[in-house]
Automatic annotation (TrEMBL):
All copies of domain Ig-like, residue ranges: 534-629
Transmembrane intervals: 21-46
BP terms from Gene Ontology: axon guidance; positive regulation of cell migration; semaphorin-plexin signaling pathway
Record's keyword annotation contains Transmembrane helix: yes
Keywords tagged on the record: Differentiation, Membrane, Transmembrane, Transmembrane helix
Any one GO cellular component localisation term in the record: plasma membrane
Protein name, per record: Semaphorin-2A
GO molecular function term, any single one: semaphorin receptor binding
CDD domains xref list: Ig_Semaphorin_C (cd04979)
Organism: Ceratitis capitata (Mediterranean fruit fly)
Gene name for this UniProt entry: SEM2A
Amino acid sequence: MLYEPQIKRKMSISRCCHNASGSWGGGGFTVAAATQVFLVLTLFVVGNLSAWQENVRPKLYVELGPEDVLKFLGNESVVDHFKLVTKDSNSLLVGARNIVYNLSIHDLTEQQRLVWQSTEDDVKMCIIKGKAEEACQNYIRIMVVTSPGRLFVCGTNSFRPMCNTYIINDNNYTQEASKSGQAVCPYDPHHNSTSVFADNELYSGTVADFSGSDPIIYREPLQTEQYDSLSLNAPNFVSSFTQGDFVYFFFRETAVEYINCGKAIYSRVARVCKWDKGGPHRFRNRWTSFLKSRLNCSIPGEYPFYFNEIQSVYQLPSDKSRFYATFTTSTNGLIGSAVCSFHINEVQAAFNGKFKEQSSSNSAWLPVLNSRVPEPRPGTCVNDTSNLPDTVLYFIRSHPLMDKAVNHEHNNPVYYKRDLVFTKLVVDKIRIDILNQEYTVYYVGTNLGRIYKIVQYYRNSESLSKLLDIFDVAPNEAIQVMGISQARKSLYVATDHRIKQIDLAMCNRRYDNCFRCVRDPYCGWDKEANTCRPYELDLLQDVANETSDICDSSVLKKKIIVTYGQSVHLGCFVKIPEVLKNEQVTWYHHSKDKGRYEIKYSPTKYIETTERGLVVVSVNEADGGRYDCHLGGSLLCSYNITVDAHRCTPPNKSNDYQKIYSDWCHEFEKYKTAMKSWEKKQAQCSSRQNFSNQHPNDVFRKNNV
C-alpha cells in the first residue's frame, strides 16, 4: 500500500512521450532505456505530479475546531482534578480541588466560585499520617442541590472528609451547617465513590475509614455489614440511581464466588429499599434489603468473552426502562472495551430469582432451593423492617448474592473494540415521528481523551449499531466526567485539567460531504445548497444505510486531463476518517472498450494508497474514462479522465535529452529523501494497523434480538 508523500510541490514531466526517438548525447542511453528510467522515477514522483489534484478531494475527515468547542481551564497554576458536574437550566456546578466553580451553561464562563480549603491543622495531620501534600487538599466529591437555594457539598478535606450546607443567594454562598463526611465522602481523592439524593435522603457508596479497607453503602444511619466480603469485597463504585422503591448501586469487586478458582473481578448491581428502617436488635443499623447480582456484558459464544469491569453507567431522564454502561477487560491482559444496554426488567428478574450460596469453603457456589427461602422474601420492600423475623434477617445477611446474572439486551454489546479503554458515557435519543424512526446515540469517552460517537437503530426487529465519528477532545487526558444537555444540544466533558462543551449537531462544520452527513441522525444533506444542516424533513437522511445511492447525485464529478505516460492519483480522502479505515473501498473504471469493471490492484498499474486512493501508473488511451470510488453501495467520489496523447512532442536535440535527464537526476535525489521518509512512515503505519485496526466491530455491529 502506497503512503501518500506529504511534499506539496507540484511539477510536470509531460515532456516525456511514448513515441520519443533518438539517443542520449554522449551517454550511450537509448530512448527505450530513458523511458524505463522515467517509469521508475514516476513511482517516486507520483505523489507530486500536477494530476494529483490536491485540493479537489472532499474532506471526509475534519478536526474539531475552536468554533466547535468551548472550554474552561479553571485554576491553571495547579491541576484542578475535575470530578463532578451538576447542571441546572442556567449553570454548571463543577467540583474540583478546594473549589466549587459555578459556570455559565451557555459559554462556560465563570460566574462565581466557592473556595473551601482544608485548615492548616488538617493538612499537617494528613502529611504526618504519611500522605503526599498533593493528596492533602480538599477535593470536592459530592454536590447536591437539596432544595431551591440550598447546596450540600462534601470534600475529602485532607483525609478527614467533611460536608457543608450552603445557602445560595444571588450566586453568593453562605455556610449554614457543617458535619463529618465519614461514610458519605471518600478519604482518598483517588477512591471511586458514588452518591444519589432521593426523597430528601443521601445514599452513598464509598469507604468509611482512613485506610480505605471498610467499604460501605450508607444512608444515615443504615449501612452494609462491616468487613464482610459477602456484602462488599473491595468494591470500586461507579454510579447509582433511584427508581421506584429501590436505590441501585453499580460497582466492580473481587468475585467471592470465584475465589476457589483464583481471583477475578466481576461487575455488580446492588439495591436497597428506600423504606428500609433497619432490623431489630443487632440489625438495628444494618440494611435488611441489600441484595446484589452480577452484570453480564459479553460477546456470546460457546465460550463467551466477558468484559468484567464496569466503568460507568448512564440512564436517560426520559426513559427509566433501561440503562447503559461501559465495561473493560482487565488492564493486565488483552485490553478491550464494550458498551452494553440493560433493561430494568432483567434486573428485577435477577433479584426475584434464586439466591446463591456456598455450603462450605471447599464446595461450589450453587442456587438455593426455593423451599429454603423464608417469608417474607428477603430483599423485598415491607412496611416495617424493624419487625422482620430473625430467619429473614440472618438469611439475607448470609445470602446477599443472587444466582442469576443480569444479561444485556440483544444478546450482543452495542459496540466493542480491542486496544481501547472506555471511561464514561452519556446517551441521547432522537425520534423522527413522521418517519417512525428512533435512534440512540452514544457518546463514549476514553482514557486518551477521545469520544466515540455511536448510533444504534433497528431494522426488521434487529438491533444494529455503527461508529459514526471520533473526536479528539483532550489528547492523552482521561475523560473523567461526561454530561449532556438535550435543551442546549450540548455535550460536557471534563478531564483532570479542563472542561469542554461540544455541540451535538456540528453538521456543516463536521461534514462537507453527503456520504457521512446523511448517516448522522442529527443532520441532513441539502441538495440545493450542497451543504450539511441540522435535520429537517426536506433534507436527505439515511442513518440505517438503506438507500445506497442517496448521495450519488450530490457527488462532484471531477474532470482531469492527463498526458500520455503520466501517472495520476485519484482520491476521496485528504485524510481517511478512522471510522472508515477498516471499511472496504472499491474502485471501478468505466472504459470505452471494457465497460464498467472493478479495478484490481497491481504494483505496475494500479496502486492503492493508505488513504484508499488510487494511483494509475503510466496512463495510455485505454485508461481514459470515468473512475468511481464506492464504499459498500455508496458512491464516494468520481473522476473523469481524459488522456491527451497529441500535445506531447519528442525532444529533437541531444541537449534536450541531456537537460531532461539532468532534471530527472535532480528530482531523483530529492525523491530518494522522500522515499526514506515514506518507508519510515509506512513501517509505523503497518505496525499500528497490525496492532489495532483488524477488529470486525470497528464500524458496524450487528446484534440479534
